[in-house]
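hiii so my PI (J.) wants the whole complex modelled not just the main chain, which honestly fair. so below is everything: two entries, each one labled with what it is. i double checked the lines twice but i was tired so who knows lol
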Amino acid sequence: DTGVSQDPRHKITKRGQNVTFRCDPISEHNRLYWYRQTLGQGPEFLTYFQNEAQLEKSRLLSDRFSAERPKGSFSTLEIQRTEQGDSAMYLCASSYRGRTEAFFGQGTRLTVV
Amino acid sequence: AQTVTQSQPEMSVQEAETVTLSCTYDTSESDYYLFWYKQPPSRQMILVIRQEAYKQQNATENRFSVNFQKAAKSFSLKISDSQLGDAAMYFCAYADNNDMRFGAGTRLTVKP
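here's the output for the full assembly
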């Protein structure tokens, strides 16, 4: 296992378009987190899954954002009708249990033009 | 939701000297974990050190150690014998059975 994998690494999109990101966690990890990080800031919690169940979703996450984790394996994060304010690094992390350390992927950098 | 506060946006240390990064958190839980993560420029977030709340002994990993004060909800990171490669953003993180939250980070500069 090579760790948490995110795809794509970079995405440039025009405002109003939809984008989808994928995260493949470490195989035995049952927790999967999505964070958004802007330059010079800490990771901002978006949502997390315990297996296939989405247990919490940040109030900051508008209706344009949706995440899934079918079968409790990989996860996707979709942003509909992108806005310039969505430009950020989107980080995925996974952990074995809720209180153990999370391992991060390299992130997907989204630029909305 | 639990909050994590890092009050030092930037810190600087001379190579080979010691620096302490501060972190405070707020929670009503009794069982949780605390972490320090390092994020070098344009690179992946990696774990530096972890502390279980039920353990009184402060965690240590080589040159990195923490001062965990549970009653005060304080969790500082001490870096001894600082090296140029320690330059990075450092994030304090809190995790319990519900979620995992991060502070805003401290940018550490190491001067040769």
